[in-house]
Write a structure and sequence with these properties.
By secondary structure, the chain is of the alpha+beta class. The protein has a domain of about 170 residues: Nucleotidyltransferase, domain 5. The chain contains 17 helices and 21 strands. α11 crosses α12. It is globular and about 65 Å long.
Length: about 525
């Protein structure tokens, strides 16, 4: 009987369970929506028990669709959204809702830390910039504003760790998910927490395991709700962006990749001795990766396909009902925007619509989305193309900040399912864009680690050799690359000009006494 690998990806808006063969071929999958709760303006939370129940549904549905039993699963890997705050008490119960990475409640605290030099000191020690959804930032806010929550907390988990705990009853994490705590490079974590005024938070950190290490086995209780077999090994796993890197075959220093999902994550694999790990100053994040001293030096924006989803919901909501499928709807949209000239006839979009502002390639929790250059003749299709272009400019902005020039970009995420967007990325970055044959890379990467953990692969290199494959390649078009370089100069000047104005706009949004 062929043994299979199960990968679970706990995303921001959905959870996915995907069943893989050892070749990486997908046998079955299930995706289930997870709501984002906004109890107050700028807040973004998720019900932890609801997320677990949704994962159980996704796993059981995936097994059912594949027509297999839990006994055919060799091992399980779990990946998930990074940062945020998933707190549990001593009995393993959630301490309120999870606060997720797009939460914006800590803007004022970040402003204070920047003025006091604390944010600079944290970056100097860790090569990680703090932003509104950073665990350390949120913990400091909770200590000050929700002391009863802070006092009850015993462990700080992340999305994948919460699900691992519910599957196995064991509490652990891995280094990749600690990147925004942040992981120290030049000093101990104690010194960082001392700087931020939360020294007691060091006690919240769980046991740290290697990503392919078996963190526990499925309990009888979890088996009853998921359909998995009791005793099935579950590995420590990786944060979603690192799991995608492995599934993309990122195993050599210098390799570059982008994930265009809810956010856009733009990174290259490097080593601790690389001076670029600390450049540019005070922006970006460095994710500990699979190999000793290896890091994914990255610029992770706050809005990728989130901008597109927002625009379609508010400007094309009624149009969706005319189409039988999402694929058919997007085919129509991309045919229409292909008729709009490159540059959207002067319309430009700044994609800073997250309640937390922007974190890369600049840090401004007050940043806001902008349409610029509107004229009477522009249609909603001009604006839609400008959204595609604006998000892609933000990717280019990130790589320019990292001072990177590269011939090839490995590209994945929801945006990589669009040939139009892939070609746009190739043209703007003036680089070859390689799209992998597999799509659910967050789940695939940790499934590969599960295979390493139980000996189905010798190591991660063997796993990449057996699993990674190329679906499509998009070559840049020189004339369009030159044109978009000129448009990018406008994009940069516009967002630089607005930095102070965004702060003023935030301060004058409400009448006095109304919020």
């Amino acid at each position: 009987m062929e043994k299979l690998l199960l990968g679970v990806d706990v995303g921001t808006s959905s959870v996915k369970a995907v069943l893989f063969r050892s070749s990486g071929a997908v046998l079955a999958e299930s995706a289930q929506a997870v709501p984002i709760l906004t109890p107050e303006s700028g807040f973004a939370e998720q019900d932890m028990n609801s997320v677990w129940e949704t994962v159980c549904l996704a796993i059981s549905q995936c097994l059912s669709r594949a027509g297999v039993t839990g006994g055919e699963i060799a091992a399980v890997g779990v990946s998930g959204q990074g940062t945020g705050c998933w707190l549990i008490d001593r009995s393993g119960k959630p301490v309120g809702n999870a606060i997720i990475w797009i939460d914006g409640r800590t803007k004022g605290l970040l402003d204070t830390w920047k003025k006091e030099g604390k944010a600079s000191e944290v970056f100097r020690l860790s090569s990680n910039s703090l932003f509104t959804g950073s665990p350390a930032t949120l913990l400091a806010w909770l200590k000050e504003n929700r002391p009863e929550v802070f006092t009850r907390a015993r462990y700080l988990l992340f999305a994948k760790d919460w699900i691992k705990f519910r599957l196995t009853g064991e509490i652990s994490t891995d280094l990749s998910d600690l990147f925004m705590f942040p992981l120290p490079l030049r000093g101990g974590v104690e010194s960082i927490l001392e700087v931020l005024g939360i020294p007691e938070a060091g006690e919240f950190l769980p046991t740290i395991r290697k990503a392919w290490e078996i963190a526990g086995t499925v309990t009888r209780e979890a088996a009853e709700t998921t359909g998995l077999q009791p005793g099935t090994p579950v590995v420590a796993g990786l944060v979603d962006v690192a799991s995608c890197a492995l599934a993309l075959g990122i195993i050599r220093p210098g390799q570059v990749y982008s994930i265009l999902g809810t956010t856009s994550f733009n990174a290259f694999l490097t080593e601790e001795k690389d001076p670029l790990l600390f450049e540019p100053q005070e922006v970006g994040i460095s994710v500990a990766y699979l190999f000793p001293g290896s890091f994914l030096r990255s610029m992770a924006t706050m809005s990728g396909t989130l901008s597109l989803d927002w625009f379609l919901e508010h400007f094309f909501g009624e149009d969706r009902s005319q189409y039988l499928s999402r694929r058919e709807f997007f085919t129509f949209l991309e045919e229409k925007i292909s008729e709009v000239p490159p540059g959207s006839e002067g319309v430009m979009f700044l994609p800073y619509i997250s309640p937390g502002g922007e974190r890369a390639p600049f840090l401004n929790p007050h940043a806001q989305g902008v349409f610029f250059g509107l004229r009477y003749h522009h249609t909603k299709f001009h604006l839609l193309r400008a959204v595609y272009e604006g998000v892609t400019f933000s990717i280019l902005d990130c790589f320019r900040a990292l001072s990177l020039s590269f011939p090839e970009l490995r590209f994945c995420g929801g945006g990589a399912k669009s040939d139009f967007w892939c070609q746009l990325v190739a043209d703007m970055l003036n680089s070859r864009v390689v799209v992998p044959k597999n799509q659910e890379l967050g789940a695939l990467g940790v499934a590969m680690l599960a295979g390493v953990g139980v000996g189905m692969y010798r190591d991660v290199y063997d796993a990449v050799e057996k699993v990674f494959g190329i679906k499509k390649v998009f070559e840049p078009r020189e004339e369009l690359s030159r044109f978009y370089r000129e448009r990018f100069a406008v994009y940069r000047k516009l967002r630089e000009f607005l930095q102070e104005l965004w702060i003023l706009n935030d301060r004058t949004t409400c009448l006095r006494g109304e919020g």
